Amino acid sequence: MKQTLWEAYPILFGGDYNPEQWPEATWETDMEMLAQAHVNSATINVFSWALLEPQEGTYDFSMLDKIINLLQKHNFQIVMATSTAALPAWMVKQYPDVTRVDTHGIRQGFGKRHNACPNSPNFQRLAQDLVTAIAKRYAHNSNIVCWHISNEYGGQCYCDNCAQDFRNWLQKRYGTIAALNQAWDTNIWSHTFHSFDEIVPPDQHTDEFENGGAMLGGESLDYRRFQSDSLLANFKLEKDIIRATDQKTPITTNFMGTQKDLDYFKWAKELDVVSWDNYPSFDTPASFTAMNHDLMYGLKQAPFMLMEQTPSQQNWQPYNALKDPGEFRMLSYQAMAHGANTVQVFQLKQSRNGCESLHGSIISHVNSTETRVFKESAQIGQELAGLPADLLTSKKQADVAIIFDWASFWAIDFALGPSVRLDYVQQVHAYYQYFYSKNIAVDMISVDDDFSQYRLVIAPTLFVLRNETATKINEYVHTGGNFVTNAMSGLVDEEDNVHLNGYFKLLQPALGLWAEEWDVLPPVSTCEVNFNGHLTTKANIVCDLLHLDTATPLATYQTDRFYNGTPAVTANRYGTGQGFLVGTYLDEGGMQHLGDLLVTAAGLTSADQPTGVELSHRYSDKYQYDFLINTTAQARTYRYEAGAKATDLLTNHPVKSGELTLAPYAVKIIQQPMI
Amino acid sequence: MKQTLWEAYPILFGGDYNPEQWPEATWETDMEMLAQAHVNSATINVFSWALLEPQEGTYDFSMLDKIINLLQKHNFQIVMATSTAALPAWMVKQYPDVTRVDTHGIRQGFGKRHNACPNSPNFQRLAQDLVTAIAKRYAHNSNIVCWHISNEYGGQCYCDNCAQDFRNWLQKRYGTIAALNQAWDTNIWSHTFHSFDEIVPPDQHTDEFENGGAMLGGESLDYRRFQSDSLLANFKLEKDIIRATDQKTPITTNFMGTQKDLDYFKWAKELDVVSWDNYPSFDTPASFTAMNHDLMYGLKQAPFMLMEQTPSQQNWQPYNALKDPGEFRMLSYQAMAHGANTVQVFQLKQSRNGCESLHGSIISHVNSTETRVFKESAQIGQELAGLPADLLTSKKQADVAIIFDWASFWAIDFALGPSVRLDYVQQVHAYYQYFYSKNIAVDMISVDDDFSQYRLVIAPTLFVLRNETATKINEYVHTGGNFVTNAMSGLVDEEDNVHLNGYFKLLQPALGLWAEEWDVLPPVSTCEVNFNGHLTTKANIVCDLLHLDTATPLATYQTDRFYNGTPAVTANRYGTGQGFLVGTYLDEGGMQHLGDLLVTAAGLTSADQPTGVELSHRYSDKYQYDFLINTTAQARTYRYEAGAKATDLLTNHPVKSGELTLAPYAVKIIQQPMI
Amino acid sequence: MKQTLWEAYPILFGGDYNPEQWPEATWETDMEMLAQAHVNSATINVFSWALLEPQEGTYDFSMLDKIINLLQKHNFQIVMATSTAALPAWMVKQYPDVTRVDTHGIRQGFGKRHNACPNSPNFQRLAQDLVTAIAKRYAHNSNIVCWHISNEYGGQCYCDNCAQDFRNWLQKRYGTIAALNQAWDTNIWSHTFHSFDEIVPPDQHTDEFENGGAMLGGESLDYRRFQSDSLLANFKLEKDIIRATDQKTPITTNFMGTQKDLDYFKWAKELDVVSWDNYPSFDTPASFTAMNHDLMYGLKQAPFMLMEQTPSQQNWQPYNALKDPGEFRMLSYQAMAHGANTVQVFQLKQSRNGCESLHGSIISHVNSTETRVFKESAQIGQELAGLPADLLTSKKQADVAIIFDWASFWAIDFALGPSVRLDYVQQVHAYYQYFYSKNIAVDMISVDDDFSQYRLVIAPTLFVLRNETATKINEYVHTGGNFVTNAMSGLVDEEDNVHLNGYFKLLQPALGLWAEEWDVLPPVSTCEVNFNGHLTTKANIVCDLLHLDTATPLATYQTDRFYNGTPAVTANRYGTGQGFLVGTYLDEGGMQHLGDLLVTAAGLTSADQPTGVELSHRYSDKYQYDFLINTTAQARTYRYEAGAKATDLLTNHPVKSGELTLAPYAVKIIQQPMI
Lengths: 675, 675, 675
Hints:
alpha/beta; Rossmann fold; five-stranded antiparallel beta sheet; globular; TIM Barrel; homotrimer
């Protein structure tokens, strides 16, 4: 029924455009300038509620009509937002419950954005009315190629409406209060509940600690789930209204990579297409950006929209360094290499006021087509226009999967202990980074995805482990899979209850071991991991103390503590596969050594290459696309093995095997026929 | 009338046990496992209010009955808690005033624990009803050897009920508003009160500053006293109920060492026996733990219960390192060496959920008797069972006393100035540490204790000095005592009014000097203290500028500031004793040098010994017990002078004089007949 | 009509005196002691509201009468405060709206000081009544030489009264909501307002971010202006009452140098004389103190009162180091060198309680005239008494002006971006420091002052630039002026709207360039500035990327980034003057090099001198006064060029040209007849 964005249209090149911030007299000039940059689309109406509905129930679409007419006249495709991400002042004044209550119990007033209480009936009703009016008026506009609902969903509310809806949500989940008491283990600290209406949201003035820790893990995890679901219900409310009128245009909302608040795997099921906003800082490793792209791709294992990025500099980071010449272009193609089918920015024209006025745009404050950034944008626009439609049908392929698990992300941060140094995303990235450095494609997957298609599945710090996931892992290894996990994995169930009888016991078949306890390493620790004499590298954060059943040690601890010489890293044959356990957190050298062992074990092909050069692949039915990217500011050389008829799509020149010189931030998109 | 815990029973080995968190089917196995570890007691019912009283006035003791029956059946002694340390959810819902209002004026909701407003009439009434029911039902149970009221009292509330009770408390203390105005010196910053009902609790949204400083020291000190008294009234409310029914079983609540909130010297008077929870971090010096034990002993100058410790690792510290093998045992005997007559842990069985689920226990998540920690626990249990009853009658003896003063602790932190680096507990410990390092026993005492029994009394940073205490000190020195104090001592009276006419003037007889002013040293300072050419060591925090009357200098400042060469440390003969003043804060080298001078002056016996080896003594009517403890992870040798018939109670082997080899964490309890 | 303070009286030497904190029996002794220190005045009644008005409408002046009688009897001049800076407890109890609501929306309770809501009708009414009573009773007292209204005004309130008055203030400023929407650019993030009553104060629970950034710069800037105006209205309310009764005595309130909250240039217009409180920390550079004095002088370009300083040590800083002997005296004369015509302290007698009890005073806790500090005070008092009346008529002269702009100060802190390292005051000081180090007098001026009298005008980080200011700058350069500005200057208009078409475009005539964009330097950056080979020095914070029209480069960037070799510092001839642009932030070495270039360009006379020696000048109609000050703790020598009849007023010795030896903290006030 629904067509995808990329079947019907050329590559979208555009971004957020807010002409309502500017005199109408300037709009035509904007259009002409943007056309010079080959911009073919605009995201509009993201924050216009106060303009669209000057008072309750009275709509004024005159400005939006003009904007849409302008874009249509200039043949711009439209990504149409719904304006519900920021509340009008009159609404907060009239219905104070539409804003959130914070973790200290303080109701927020009018201001900022992204602060509507998801469970406010007033907010829900008013959003529904607005979106109904918008859908009615614009749903059949042929220039609208995508609906963009609200904006960057996230955050929590702790108000009475949320409390009441939380109780209902819990009643649906657990049925009886007894079942809830059992699931949450509430006899701790006198938390036994006798009816659902005794339950209040866990926040810092109730059941959470100043450091973010939770009194009852199950309660806090459920509140995260509930809030994520509440926002998702807001999304679905709007989506359903639009879909009722418009059965074919894709609907999305913009995601934010490895953010913590929302379980994107659950959300992605409700989106027609994933889109996200990519804002690396000056010191973000290229591998981290790549991992975020792969995660966004992995939400549906399908291409996504790069909804936002800045062509020049952010403004909300501590040090908003300028992108180098070519870096915006490089980052755009890096996104594409990992599955992006659009290149969009925030924003087309730089605001002159508001808290984003120092955020770079294609049309900068200079208001000229002669700026460095405009010219680079125009180059990208021109190049994108020349790329073949077939590219948009191409997909990733990977033999390696890394599990990303929002439940574990939440539960680790709610846990009191074992160490303040444990950072979930950083530890997932530590594994990703190795494969990235070897140009080995990785799929980012959820615990619910199919493992069988991968030669190697990695579950870094998979703190929350359901029984059925454990069974699936054991089965995967037994039937030939290679599985890796590490310290703090498999510790608790979905409601934060520790799995008993030895840590890793649920994975004992696959791993061939269990752990009795773990030590915690202060920063001053000198504990090391010795890979059977080949390499000695620092151990970090925790050290599992392991009992090997069938597993064999790959490395042992080297320490002045009592567990000196005991196993730190292990391998275990189980059925026709292998299960690996890393009982601690390795530094980069350790990860390199471990990764090499895993590559060999899984029979993967790995290639050494110059630091910062990335080779990624996409595959259509007809072609292979190699994205060869120098992510650095220095020139690099790369020995590239070209097939017959290999062509660089950005130059239309044939590419031959051999040493390629890659200028700083150079990009080649090499198309070769599938064999 | 009341028997002490240790006259009637063997050494309690046990700890918190929460079977209500587990299926009943597992309880018998717990008992069998614990019996294998020679556990003979359990602390129960600490956090069960919500279970015991599912709705107001309706009690359900079925689960508690079962637990008590279980323990009785297995001959476990019971430390019986009252469950008032955490509120049921229904109570907070029904009576919001039962929770506290924080320093920003925000009422807390249901959650966590230790958060009942001590002055809530509803809380008081409901606690009274619950404890009455508990006492009625269980007071005559012969297995109950100790009552444990609430848990780890502490914290402050700033609600309207507290405000009203504070006014009453002040009226009782001062009689008239004029007397209060004079005591607090309220004409500062327009704080003159015209009636008691104008007074509000000092918090951060009234009279305290963000950094914890107080606008009016007297007001904030009195609020501390009032809150400490309010919680003590809660304790006494419960104690009186129990005592009405049970006239013989000792009653306690668990203390927390050098915590700040409660004046334990005042509290201890109301307890039959002191108990406390010992949670050193991985980097806590052994001397600091010893000081805490000595302080807990000193509250009543009597043996105490070691109510809680972890056998393996904490979970709420930044880095929850595992205890080494033998370290749990060593710490248990170190406690005993300083007066503990029980060895208890939190907890017997590790929770599988809640914010303490990663806190180590005797029965760990492995649920096995084969774990390292279980086996070490069993060893301790077996050893304790073999120790003689006479040991529990033994007491400490010391020639040195160090004053610990909660009023000074509070007042220093309320003071704006002189330096952010002044930490009361750390500075008390600096003095304690010297004597610890020389195996010289120290009594921790209050300003109200008798000084005359000591050869040396030290008052580190005794900021608050009452006239009567000053008189007592001067008298003590005059009649032969050796007294030491240091910078920032004797500055103010009980209501924070500075003593005029020269700092130290109240102690002028004893010290033979006064100070005109003090310099404050930034961290970059190079000011040093020169002990008459023998040693030069860093001065820290402040430097008193002294005028010597009869005192003589032991050390002078060495600085590029104008007070170069003036006295830094002094001695003064007064009557037949001596008064010493240290005008600054010394580093460890300086403390060693100073300590040696004091040892000589006071005619104490001091012995050099290997770092980390502790020799402590307890004395009964019949025996001397020497606790020789290697607190370190390395082997040590120690030259021990044994009397005749010296026997190591842990091996039942005779001990002879000579070089003893002490393995890591080795402990010897050497019994010798009193001569 | 009004006489100035210095025409009628000798130099005021005195300070805050609070006898109401002490028994009356001690007052006479205070007077006698102060007379020994040549103290001739006292500031009284600063915080006595609760004493003066024990209940609403009932006044009790008995204590104040006694204090005034005491001072009159001893011929002390009186600086008479109005007591409105701290609220009585009864008032807060009766009228809770008199206290402020903080940035989180929490109403403050009774306590501390400086916390009255400026827009509380109850506060306004009660203050008016009190001051009316005071004026009526004391206005004709001949010993009152100055009125001191309230104390150290500052801070913000976010209550409903403020919200309503803010709306009225905005209506007056903008007329229509449409005009406000345009000025604030409210179509961003759905902030369009449809009526004034939708507007709420921007705070952290509405429109400001946790880091202090603003959602709408115009809104937050206007709220700052409104709050500054509201407090100023409080001041004027009191002033008008006093002026109605007393037409001749000067009225002031004490300022606090480079504080952020109030636009002192606007305030100073309402004060008869500027007064301020000088509290350098142990590590405050002498140049920073000098800059503050020059700013206070610059508010009216007239001598000011040094209302407060401590003779010995502060108590509210992290490390409250003691002033060296002579340092209090040196700082007093440094103030005078920069325009102070009084020498006053906080306070004459040290409090024995309250949060300022550890703050040094002339009469210390020792309560003696024999203290070091008392004797130094007495020396100063004696010297001041000997200084000629003509000195008080003397004024500063400067060829260099530095613009200090509160709007820019506010707007930079409200901006999200470009770098967390940008500190407005520190960057103004970086320019001031150069001229200070060369003994070149600087006037601190506002953007509204006349530039034409200066050879060099510097506008460091003048973030906010109005069109008329830009025009004035261009005109100043065109007619021969030398103008310097730097990165982040001229960025926005008064409502935070970015000036378009190229950064610095409003100053393009003067500077001969525009900037396209800027890079932001993280702390790890290695970017440098190369002054055409003469000097290479670190670039900091940001680097403007410049397009030179008529400007020529004085320095270029040296970096591994793409803008290597492009201009960093430029000069431009325009008309008969020059405009300089520093596109980045220089370190001290860079500032020295730049400063030397500017001195040459502007034809200024500069002299190298020993570090820490300051030579400042004041000029009366008859005499030049040279203040030669060694601000350091080390001896210095200085080659001084004396005119004929040069006399050191502090020794009455003639001064001859040549090498003068200056002891630590030495001061010479050399009088020479004007030629």
